[in-house]
């Protein structure tokens, strides 16, 4: 009997969902082997990295503990190369892992501008968040510029301002904070930032990060003791370097079943994948990332049985945004992510946000016992029907 080797790269929200779903479904089978590779053995709750950056503790969630008893193998290491021709992956340069089917879930990081790598902090990894945490804790007084008015920028600016009221916090970027929300939610979000003392500058395009300032298009500079860069998104260069077809952000282009369009033995999930739905390409979120992982796992099981995988369908349902520890806005959305009329604000929204943020780990634990419990998410109705 030959063994089919499934290798899952990245134990983020999407890769973890794929690995645990697969492991639970093939438990006890000798003909399928599941291996998960990740940089850390602790699960990174990316949704809480702005808490780490402001010195607040987060839970210790052990990936090997979660996989225990499923038969899946865990390899801790940094994936340095992928060779789709030989179906091999290199880990920490010197270790080679073979696969028959690959699940590519290495996530994404913020975009960049000249000077950002040298002079700006990011929330790309837990280590980055810890470095920023130490810098902010030792700053005393000064100016923190948070570049990027997207939701990561908003949550980070609010958290820093609440935690360190003696600091001047400037949130700066192209768009208006909360731009995708309805008027009520957006107004609430902007008033909360004002209450926390965050200075907002929208319509500003950062073109360079300097050692003690940022430079805007038009030549103006804004002084900063610390710059946190949150603008844009890009995927790791690994997939493109391996010759997989990627989009302009380096995300793996997928077919309707989440397989790479150039290499169908590779499934791509989460932020690392460019996944098209009827309303456009998914933008990176945890709410869509976990379903992509589950769908890839279920598709692999179907393919092993000789069945065709089904198309992936997903519709958004909310945008929860924290505004410090006691306040938040939750914008409920149509499946295409456009805002509905209803939104939650204040303490109730903060509780909702916390419930959502805490939910992935219990979901994995449930899936480990009952894989089918992971298969429920909004499919998007008419917004996703009949795509490709
Ligand atoms: C501060 C912040 C707040 C956010 N808030 C929200 C929110 O409220 N709601 C929401 O839906 N989304 C939110 N997001 C976005 C969300 O975190 C991402 O969309 C989500 O993490 C994507 O999941 P993923 O599994 O694709 O990637 P990730 O969660 O980034 O996981 C990728 C995994 O791969 C590992 N990895 C990467 N490269 C390698 C390598 N070469 N070798 C080995 N391992 C590697 C990483 O260590 C990580 O474990 C937020 C993001 C940030 C930064």
Automatic annotation (TrEMBL):
Q: Do you know which SUPFAM superfamilies this protein is assigned to?
A: FAD/NAD(P)-binding domain (SSF51905)
Listed cofactors: FAD
The residues forming a coiled coil are none
Top-level taxon: Bacteria
- Residue limits of the FAD/NAD(P)-binding domain? 5-283
Is Ligase among this UniProt entry's keywords?
no
User: Which keywords does the record carry?
Assistant: FAD, Flavoprotein, Oxidoreductase
**Pfam families to which the protein is assigned, alphabetical:** Pyr_redox_2 (PF07992)
State the family named in the UniProt similarity comment for this chain: Belongs to the NADH dehydrogenase family.
- Which protein are we looking at? Oxidoreductase
Q: Which organism is it from?
A: Amycolatopsis deserti
């Amino acid at each position: 009997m030959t063994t089919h080797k499934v290798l899952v790269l990245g134990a983020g929200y999407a890769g973890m969902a794929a690995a645990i779903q697969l492991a639970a479904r093939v438990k006890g089978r000798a003909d399928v082997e599941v291996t998960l590779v990740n940089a850390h053995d602790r699960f990174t709750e990316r949704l809480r990295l702005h808490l780490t950056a402001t010195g607040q503790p987060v839970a210790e969630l052990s990936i090997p503990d979660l996989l225990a008893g499923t038969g899946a193998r865990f390899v801790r290491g940094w994936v340095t190369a992928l060779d789709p021709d030989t179906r091999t992956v290199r880990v920490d340069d010197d270790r080679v892992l073979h696969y028959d089917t690959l699940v590519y879930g290495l996530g994404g990081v913020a975009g960049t501008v000249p000077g950002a790598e040298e002079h700006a902090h990011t929330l790309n990894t837990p280590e980055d968040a810890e470095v920023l945490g130490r810098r902010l804790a030792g700053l005393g007084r000064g100016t923190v510029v948070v570049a990027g008015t997207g939701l990561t920028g908003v949550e980070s600016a609010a958290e820093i301002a609440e935690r360190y009221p003696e600091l001047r916090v400037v949130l700066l970027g192209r768009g208006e904070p909360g731009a995708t929300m309805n008027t009520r939610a957006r107004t609430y979000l902007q008033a909360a930032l004002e209450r926390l003392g965050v200075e907002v500058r929208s319509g500003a395009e950062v073109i360079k990060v300097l050692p003690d300032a940022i430079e805007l298009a038009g030549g103006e500079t804004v002084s900063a003791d610390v710059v946190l860069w949150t603008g844009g998104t890009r995927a790791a260069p690994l997939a493109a370097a391996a010759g997989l077809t990627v989009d302009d952000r380096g995300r793996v282009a997928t077919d309707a079943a989440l397989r790479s369009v150039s290499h169908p033995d590779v499934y791509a999930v989460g932020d690392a994948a460019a996944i098209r739905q009827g309303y456009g390409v998914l933008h990176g979120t945890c709410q869509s990332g976990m379903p992509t992982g589950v769908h890839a796992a279920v598709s692999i099981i179907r393919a092993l049985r000789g069945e065709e995988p089904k198309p992936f369908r997903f519709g958004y349902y909310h945008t929860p945004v924290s505004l410090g520890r006691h306040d938040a806005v939750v914008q409920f959305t149509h499946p295409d992510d456009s805002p509905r009329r209803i939104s939650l604000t204040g303490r109730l929204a903060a509780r909702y946000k916390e419930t959502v943020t805490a939910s992935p780990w219990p979901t994995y634990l449930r899936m480990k016992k009952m894989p089918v419990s992971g298969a429920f998410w909004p499919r998007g109705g008419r917004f996703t029907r009949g795509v490709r």
